[in-house]
Design the sequence.
């Protein structure tokens, strides 16, 4: 069977994301050193299909940035490059001056411990209470029992879930479960917080509540990056919006004065 049958090319493009032609290569011109840089990044999944096509983007420390676009546009790939779930086929990705493409496999766990990662599906332990879910995550990264007892209540209060500390996951609403997932991402007091579709399973009211929590964390100095297709909620938060289409950054809008949320 031919490896690239002509009648399947269009179907592959629609299903897998994109067949694209990277834009002309360009370098980031500002000599200042930003916190995160994607420079002409291409991620290739096969000879025909690419996850990113020459994406160039710079993010300063302390920013709150939304990556928006349709499913398969490439916004989640940007986050996966930072966690090294994906690696660039070409181009360069740097975080705090570190070339992530050059990291060895054994160095990746340490990289991930320096960031908070919020999953879309909550991933809570069903037989453990709210405080135990956070405590378990802390113990897993080496925190002492004394540290756990001291920090867990404060972390839960940061995301407004302290009053539900003794509840089990099945007793929580979707918004409450997502708040616990955010709490677990805060156990190392990370300078960088990554969220991939954090409101994908929530109704509009709870979606806005989660974005408000992320905005407050950002106001305390945490760099927050969120991949989302929830354009209505994103518009209410009034933060920087980067649009991704076909694996390319097609627009980048910065708000001059972020609104209170």
Sequence:
């Amino acid at each position: 069977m031919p490896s690239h049958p002509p009648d399947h090319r269009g179907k592959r493009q629609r299903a897998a994301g994109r067949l694209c032609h990277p834009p002309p290569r360009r370098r980031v011109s500002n000599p200042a050193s930003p916190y995160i840089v994607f420079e002409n990044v291409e991620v290739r999944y096969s000879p025909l299909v690419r996850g990113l096509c020459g994406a160039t983007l710079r993010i300063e420390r302390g920013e709150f940035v939304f990556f928006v676009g349709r499913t398969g546009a490439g916004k989640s790939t940007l986050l996966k490059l930072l966690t090294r779930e994906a690696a660039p086929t070409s181009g360069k990705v740097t975080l705090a001056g570190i070339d992530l493409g050059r990291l060895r496999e054994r160095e990746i766990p340490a990289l991930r411990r320096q960031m908070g990662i919020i999953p879309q599906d909550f991933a809570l332990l069903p037989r453990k209470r709210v405080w135990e879910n956070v405590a378990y995550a802390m113990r897993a990264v080496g925190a002492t029992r004394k540290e756990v007892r001291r920090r867990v209540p404060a972390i839960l209060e940061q995301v407004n879930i302290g009053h539900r500390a003794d509840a089990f996951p099945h007793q929580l609403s979707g918004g409450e479960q997502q708040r616990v997932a955010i709490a677990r991402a805060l156990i190392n007091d990370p300078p960088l917080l990554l969220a991939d579709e954090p409101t994908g399973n929530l109704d509009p009211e709870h979606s806005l509540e989660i974005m408000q929590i992320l905005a407050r964390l950002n106001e305390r100095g945490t760099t927050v990056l969120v991949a989302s297709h929830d354009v209505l909620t994103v518009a209410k938060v009034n933060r920087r919006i980067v649009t991704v289409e076909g694996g390319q950054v097609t627009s980048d809008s910065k708000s001059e004065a972020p609104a209170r949320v």
Q: What stands out?
A: Residues 1-18, 24-31, 255-261 have pLDDT under 50 and may be disordered.
